[in-house]
Design a protein that fits this description.
By secondary structure, the chain is α/β, with parallel strands linked by helices. The protein has helices at residues 6-13, 21-33, 36-57, 76-83, 96-106, 122-127, 129-132, 158-167, 187-196, 209-213; strands at 62-66, 88-93, 112-116, 142-146, 174-180, 220-221, 227-228, 250-256. Strands 1, 2, 3, 4, 5, 6, 7 and 8 form an eight-stranded mixed sheet that branches. α1 packs across α2, α2 runs antiparallel to α9 (187-196) and α3 packs parallel to α4 (76-83). The protein is globular and about 45 Å long.
Amino acid sequence: MQRPSAARMFDYYLGGTANFAVDRQAVDRLLGEVPEVQVYARATRAFLGRMIRFLCGRGIDQFLDLGSGMPTVGNVHEVAQRRCPEARVAYVDIEPEVVAHSGQLLRGTERVTVTQADIRDPETVLAAPGVTELLDFSRPVAVLAVSILPYVSDEDDPVGIMARYRDSCPPGSYLAVSHGTALTMSAEQVHSSENAYRDTHTPVIMRDPERIRELLPGYELVEPGLVPLPEWRPEPDVNAAQDGTASANGVAAVGYLPDEPLRA
């Protein structure tokens, strides 16, 4: 029997069509217990757009998107190239079907690559042709870890992983992180959320904000710091409608890499 996929489940939250019955069934069961997860997905997507526009405004034109997921409207390259036509985006995902689907949709798109790799192995990711042949790491790069680190267990050392990506980037680079956290959810709802992903290839873990801040080692947080998803530089956005700030049950931050980062 086919297992649900976190990437396809996220696609279904957003109203996409790149999902199967097993994914929809898993999501529908979870929504019955934790309706906030759909708010989280939509708030995450809205944050992604705002964050990319902000980075483009800061002169960033290179993006390494870790755990990019199923392509849907408002992808990184679409938002970035609308602001900066020369922007380059290297997508990375572990799931073969995600990479295959992305490759089909992106065929003929300039300055965009898709690489199948495990983001928990930065050395392999950073050596992949789709990354090295597209991005110039002698210039600032934005590393995006949007709603992907909940799928990296503590045993895999997510702080160390992000530090290795940091060390590949020059000063002036950025790291964007969003992550689920229980702001309004009960302990039972947290358990239901984590349990819903145990049947997937990528179990999920929610973390406290203090632990999420540690996932940006050596970075200076830009204003407004680590805040609930809808509070990160809000602007009018078609995907930004929320049931309430806290009900998104997620936080986000963007870090700037100074000349002499504090090593974690």
